Amino acid sequence: NCVTIKSISSEKVLIIGDKAFSGCTALNSATFINAEKIGSEAFYGTALASAAFEKVTEIGVDAFVSCASLEEVCFDSLVTVDLSDFEGCNNIKKFSFNCAEVFETKDLLLGEFAPNVTDFVANEITSVPDNFFKNCKQLSNVELSSITSVGDYGFYGTAITSASFSGLESA
User: Fold this and answer.
1) Sequence-ordered list of residues with C-beta below 8 angstroms from that of 139, at least 6 positions apart, any chain
2) Which strands make up the sheet holding 72-75, listed edge to edge?
3) Contact of 96 with 73, CB cutoff 8 Å
4) pTM for the full model?
5) Which stretches within 39-119 are classed as H helix?
6) In degrees rounded to 5, what are phi and psi of residue 110?
7) For residue 96, which phi and psi values (nearest 5 degrees)?
């Protein structure tokens, strides 16, 4: 039973297994400097306040679902990210990814499951799908330097005050 674990750190762990910390409801800090893979439901329902993994290239299904305290998500090495893996993380304020594809498999709008997001940084993605940021009412800063296209209603209902789209070709 892991309900009393509040913090965990390791420089040696390369793979965080499926459901590794699922149900560790007090876990609010996790540092895995060299982790490359996070398994399915690995942090499901924890109290993580932030998730920053420099070397992680793969996130398993629902890895961070129901992490209600999660406010910041930063991954430097992901190839793709499915935002469905963060469903129920209603307090996220910042997403930061350096990956080529950000998608959502459950047809949830970012504004539905992360209504408080204020910053979204994904400098390698090339397109924003239809309705992607729709109704992200707190979204004020977007950095998408490789973006070439924005789908219908891509930013509808946002509060964007700062945006960087240096490669935008069509909107």
Assistant:
1) 111, 117, 118, 119, 120, 133, 155, 158, 159, 160
2) 50-53, 72-75, 94-97, 119-122, 141-143, 162-164
3) yes
4) 0.81
5) 110-113
6) -55, -40
7) -140, 120
Report residue 78: phi and psi, to 5°.
Answer: -65, 145
d(C-alpha 141, C-alpha 148), whole Å: 18
Digit-coded pLDDT (tens) for 105-125: 555 667 777 778 899 888 777
Give the chain's end-to-end CA distance (angstroms, integer).
51
**DSSP bridge pairs for 96:** 74, 121
- What's the pLDDT tens digit per position in 54-77? 899 999 999 999 999 999 988 888
Q: Token pair for residue 157?
A: 């209902």
How many other C-beta atoms lie within 10 A of the C-beta of residue 110? 23
User: Which residue bears the tokens 């996070």?
Assistant: 38
AA identity, residue 95: F
